[in-house]
Amino acid sequence: MRNALLPLLGFVAASTIMSTAGHAQQNRVSERQAPPQSGQKAKNVILFLADAGGVATVNGASLLGYGEPLRLRIQKWPHLGLSETSPVDAFVSDSANGMSAIVTGVKTHNGVISQAPGGARGKEDGLPTKTVLEYAEQHGLLTGVITTQSIADATPAATYAHSNDRRKWGEIFSQAFTPRFGDGVDVLFGAGRREIGEQLAAAGTSFEQLGRTHSRPIHAALADVQANERRPVVVADQMDVRAATLKALDILQKSPKGYLLVIEWDAHSDDPREGLQNVVDFDKLIAEVQARVDLNDTLLLFTADHSFGLQVDGGRRGEELLAGYDVWKAATRDKENDLVRLKNVMVNRTHTGEEVPALAIGAGAERVHGYFPNTYLFEVMMKAWGWEPDAVPGK
Ligand SMILES: [Zn+2]
After folding, report:
1. pLDDT band at residue 14, thresholds of 50, 70 and 90?
2. Ligand 1 mean position to 87 CA, how many Å?
C-alpha cells in the first residue's frame, strides 16, 4: 500500500511546488511520503550524472557497446526509479534546472543555477537553494566535482554555485572559492579553461590571481597536481574523467567523516556514436568505482538531468546498431540538421521531457523506486546520510 501511493504522492508534490513557486522551499520535502526505513546509513555518496542520458540512451549504449540489451553494469543495480525532470514553467528541462533540482530539492527555471524560482533568468536572483554539496561541507565531509565539460557549465555549477544565469561562467567558477559552508568544494576537476579564463579576464581577474588570493593553485592539467595536494583544482582544456575520478578517490577516501563525489559525463547524442560511447565508457568507470567502495557505507546513484531525443527504432540481433553512421558523419557532420536518420537509430537532436532513469546501489539505495520528481533524489541523498534539510533551505 505504501509503495502503491508513492507515484501519486510524488506527482502531488511536484504540482504543489509548481503552483506555489514562491514558497517552493517550504514545500520541498514534506509532501512526499516517508520512504522505507533502512538501518544502513551512508558515509559516502557518489552521484554519477550522465548529461542527457535518458532511458533510450542507456538502452542504445548497451546495444552499441555489447551488441545486446541490459549489458551495462548500472543495469544490474537493484534499485530503479523514473525521475521527472521538468522546470517550474515548462515541460522540458535544461541542465541548469535539471541538476539544480537534483542537488537542492527545488525545481527552478531553465538557465538558473541553484536558485529558487522567485528570480528571473539573467535579471534577478532567486533565493539561493542549499545544495547537497553545501550540506556535506557543513557536516565536515570532503567534497569533489568532476566533469568532462566546463567546470563552470550548468551541471557541475549547480553543486557549488548559485547564479541567475548559467552563462556567467566567470562568476560561477569564482564562487567555488567563496563558499557559503565549510571550506567549499575540495576537489574540482573539469574543462573549459579558455572560456572561463576569458570571462575572468573580462571581470578583471585571472586563474593566477584567483589562485593567489585563495592560496590555491588552479592547474591547467591533471598531471600538474602535486602528490601532497589535498584540495586540488584543475581547469583544463579537456578532462580525462577516468583519471580524474581515480585521483579524486585517492583523496576523498581518506576522509574520516566521509565524502560526496559528483561526476558528470556528457551523454548528449547529437552525434549518436559519441554520445552512446560516452555512456559505455562512463559505465565502465562506474564499475571501477564500485569495486573501490564499500557498499555498506556508500550510496552510488546514477541519473540524468534531462532526457534526449534518441531512439532505437530498427535493427536485428547481430547487426551493427549504428549502421550508416560513417556515411551520415561524412555527409552531414557540419550541417545543422535537427534530425539524424540512421538505419536503426533516429535522433531528434534536442532535450526531451520524459522521465530519466535513476539507478542506485549501496547504503540508502532502496529509497529509489517508482516515478518521482527529480527533487526526490535530493531527499534520497540527504536521508542516506541521515540528515534533515534546513527548515528554510535557502537561508
Ligand atoms: Zn544537460
Report:
1. very low
2. 13
pTM for the whole thing? 0.90
Task: List strand residue ranges (DSSP E) for the chain, in order.
Answer: 44-51, 79-84, 142-150, 187-191, 218-219, 233-235, 259-266, 298-303, 307-312, 339-341, 345-352, 356-362, 370-373
| 333 exposure class (CB count in 10 Å sphere: 0-12, 13-18, 19+) | exposed
Q: Which three cell numbers stand for residue 81?
A: 526509479
Q: Is residue 166 over pLDDT 90?
A: yes
* Residue 91 CA, ligand 1 centroid: distance in Å: 15
First-to-final CA distance of the chain: 36
* Cβ pair 96, 365 in contact under 8 A: no
Report the interhelical angle of 2-19 vs 375-385 (nearest 10°): 120
Minimum mean pLDDT range among 13-27, 161-175, 251-265, 269-283: 13-27
Give residue 155 CA to ligand 1 midpoint distance, Å. 7
Q: Which residues pair with 139 in a beta bridge?
A: none
- Distance from residue 305's CA to the centre of ligand 1 (Å): 5
Tell me the C-alpha distance between 152 and 192, whole Å. 7
Asked whether the predicted pLDDT for residue 20 surpasses 60, the reply is no
**3 state DSSP class of 160:** helix
Q: Which of 384, 386, 372 is nearest to 295 (CA)?
A: 384
Q: What is the pLDDT of residues 310-327, one digit of tens each?
A: 999 999 999 999 999 999
What average pLDDT does the structure give for the chain?
Answer: 91
Give the homologous superfamily in CATH for domain 45-316+352-376. Answer: Alkaline Phosphatase, subunit A (3.40.720.10)
> Could you tell me which residues come within 8 angstroms of residue 79 by beta carbon, excluding any fewer than 6 positions away?
359, 360, 361, 365, 366, 367, 368, 369
Cα of 228 vs centre of ligand 1, distance in Å, is: 34
- How far is residue 195's CA from residue 335's CA, in Å, rounded to a whole number? 24
Which pLDDT tens digit goes with each residue over 275-311? Answer: 999 999 999 999 999 999 999 999 999 999 999 999 9
Question: Measured between alpha carbons, how far is 212 from 182 in angstroms, rounded to an integer?
Answer: 20
Structural domain spans, the chain: 45-316+352-376
Q: If you average pLDDT over residues 77-97, what whole number do you get?
A: 98
Dist. CA 195 → ligand 1 center (Å): 18
